[in-house]
Here is the input.
Amino acid sequence: MLADDRLSLYIHIPFCTLKCSYCDFNSYAGIEALMRPFVDALCDEMRLWGGVLRGRRVETVFFGGGTPSLLPLEEVGGIMAAMQEAFDLAPGAEVSFEANPGTIDHDYFRGLLGAGVNRISFGVQSFHDDELAALDRIHSAEEAKDAYRWAREAGFERINLDLIYGLPNPGAPLIPSIPQDEREEASRESMERWQATLEQAIALGPEHLSLYALTVEEGTKLAHDIERGRAPAPDGDMQAAMYEWSSERLAAAGYAQYEISNWCRPGEECRHNLVYWRNGEWLGLGPGAHSHLLDLRSCRPSGLPAGPGGVSARFADVYSPKQYIARVNETVKLPANGSGDLQAVLESMGQVTFVEEQTAEMEMADTAILGLRLNEGLDVGGFELRFGRGLNEVYGPVLTETAAFGLLERENGRVRLTERGRLLANEVFVRLLPD
Here is the structure.
């Protein structure tokens, strides 16, 4: 669990055709004029970090957004070339690429594969056109199926589908005081709609499925509509019922759950996301991209807290794409910082505008919470090896309490959430946070 020479890259593409009603990601519609200067800045940022992290082998790459599939193929090829120049991309590295079904065709898939992308993640969300329209998605259910087929025909062997459950039934009443029988009928219809979506996803046969409960994020169009009574708020009980049904159905279809929201065929876990859940190291590139680094080379940065688990920092680039481009352009004009000191390097990176130095308590909490999201749970011995302190020593009372509630269990040197615990995971996680 300690740092080694392996590294992951997250590449944030901020462009969108239309901002979806539920989305609070750092994405923007109508800024296509920035695409060329953005790609130039992104490649420059790779070169800046490549000089600092020389020798770190990149095992996974994830293009997220936004909508990466809005990038012309020429730009994708340029980014991949700059990446291979700046970093040591491991043979067989997993390179995932998020795609919106409404933005992509046969030739684009072939071009992605030729550029080195080997895993596609489709933001399908639903197989009902009225639900897609309510979410402001620009594709139809049929277009999602076409895109999946084209990806297969191009040669992609690893495909993920993102789906959202707990969507408001477009025909459901908005008034909470409707009669009980009408509420029950609306709930039944919502469940049947979700079941139909998941059945269509299973029929396609993807290697991986990510299922997310609809959440209402502050500042989104969805939150605005709910506040004004234009859309119903998500029903937590219904979402729990959908989640339980989905877990049983996917198991019967041969998909193994390996994380609270993720299922896959055997051996098809998303290697990149496992880095996050195991609290590993990744470098985020692009506006608003977040990073987590333990150290640079073998040096221990003097400005960050030290401990048995090593030093670490979480940091992020400036959110505004315009400011990101300008700050990277300024940074490349400055002399490179080759000190090996993480704090000094971060101070020299003008595009980095948020830095959070990690205490040992914060690192332990992150490792415990993220590890418990996995079905395999948290490795007790690995935790002690990483931090020099036993899990019981740090969290004994919390573990005892949550186990008594039936939310945690211990087996074969691991602590993990029970089935009930996955439904109430936040009740466990909040107790693990540092004071």
Summary: The chain has a mean pLDDT of 90. DSSP finds 16 helices and 17 strands in the chain. The CA atoms of residues 17 and 30 lie 7 Å apart. The first strand starts at residue 6 and ends at 13.
